[in-house]
Amino acid sequence: MRRLLVCLVVAACGGDDGRGSTPVDGSTAGGTTVTGTIHGLDFGIVDAASAVAHNGTGTSSFATIILSSHSGICADANADVIRANRRELVLFVGVGSGNSLAAPTSTGTFAVASPGNGPYSTVTAEVVDGACAPVTSDTASAVSGSTTLTAIDGDRFAGTFDVTFDSGDHVTGSFDPQGCAAIGQGASQQPTCQ
After folding, report:
1. Rounded distance, CA 133 to CA 90, Å?
2. Residue 130: its pLDDT value, please?
3. Domain boundaries, the chain
4. What is the DSSP string of the chain?
């Protein structure tokens, strides 16, 4: 549930349905680029933020990186707002040891895998509709590939990714997001849909 809340605080899609031959192809001023398509959707990434997130009990942590089709995601997270019609790529990166997870403290490559022992990353394509409800038919999860972190500075995690989703779509990109502690806190049980 915590993962869903973190994803929902930053999930949604663009004005039209975005299907067609247009690639994800979003560039932000922060140096974030994404190339590829997911379920034929243009994600149009315009903003990026990252943070160290903690599980509900505070015993585990992981890096959360959000690449969004909507600007102002850090302000939205601080205000407990979900934007309608938004699309996002959500990356989780960490190091597992036994029953605990830790956010990365050094750069390196993290293979797409379920959290367990050793380095791991997950990448999910999240889409919400005009009522901020998840559009499950447009959701996808990476099944292979990796995320490489090239810089870590507090809540800021920069790097690249090269993944293939369960939809069969191949997407690559780089990210240099703003650090935003609110992203790591997740949304309340009932964030405001705007």
Report:
1. 16
2. 96
3. 2-193
4. -HHHHHHHTT----SS--BSS----EE-TTS-EEES-BTTB-----EEEEEEEE-TTSS-EEEEEEEESSS-HHHHHHHTEE-SS-EEEEEEEEEEETTEEE--SS-EEEEB--SSSEEEEEEEEEEB-TTS-B-GGG-EEEEEEEEEEEEEETTEEEEEEEEEETTS-EEEEEE-PEE-HHHHH---SSPEE-
Q: Is the distance from CB of 48 to CB of 177 less than 8 angstroms?
A: yes
pLDDT for residue 143: 97
- The alpha carbons of the chain give a radius of gyration, in whole angstroms, of 15
C-alpha count within 13 angstroms, C-beta hemisphere, residue 119: 13
Given the structure tokens 């369960």, which residue do they identify?
166
Residues 6+ apart with CB under 8 A from 75: none
pLDDT tens-digit profile of 90-130?
A: 999 999 988 889 999 999 999 999 888 899 999 999 999 99
